[in-house]
Amino acid sequence: MELTDADLLARVLVDGDQHAFGELVRRHQSPVRGLLRQLTRADVELADDLAQETFIRAYKNIRNFRGEAKFSTWLYRIAYNVFRDQARKRKELVGIDEAQWQSEADPQTADPGLRHDLMSALNSLPLHERSAIVLCCQNGLSHDEAARVLEIPLGTVKTNVLRGREKLKKILAAWGP
Amino acid sequence: MNELPQTEDWLDRRLREEAPYIDDAGFTGRVMKQLPHRPSLRTQRAIIIFTATILSVVIAYFGSGEGWFVREALVRAATLPPLTVFGFVLACGLLLIVGGLWAALTRTRDPIG
Fold it and tell me: Rounded to a whole number, what is the distance in angstroms from the first to the last CA of chain A?
């Protein structure tokens, strides 16, 4: 029987079991790294560095996890904070240099077809809309959960998702029904 | 409270389907190497209990006229009939076995993964 996240967390908290934490990392690494790749506009190296920092920060602060939200939501929140801290350092949160971001895009996304178009379309969105779209539409978070991760009002999340979706639909009209 | 995202349409489906699973490729190992070492709660608890026990013994020893009651107990034990001493030792042994079995059974857990 596979252990739940709660079982693994209990082992980390009570026994300081690092193997249990390793299992949590293995389970959640893909969505966390995926989110950070979207936020960093497919800068794989930077995204993975931030993902490592995310899990280390999660381990150090694991006693602060109250279980009010899902563990994955808590991780997304840490990941977003790590990204924001790093972006502040690089002065990229305010007045993002779009051209620089585009030039830093990973060549992996240059695959032909839908994935490329989707990634390009996502990358063309401003950060606040892209974050909301990735969390809600790609990672399946509710608007409420996304609001907690991004630390913005619920209404703002809804607006960002709506606007982002409208833009994506326009750009990707050729792939639509 | 937890409001679900908007009704799924072709865009949501495309976004979800096109999000690739990222292979671990040593990522977890790199994270594990960087984790800070931290004594477990069990170790901390054991240290606290051990320290508290030693302190209590020292306080009790000096607070009771340098342990006159211990000497008294030893003198009394020396005068006990051999059968009583044997019964006492047997009871202690049984208690230890039961305690050990109980600890072994309760600590048996499912393996991770």
Answer: 42
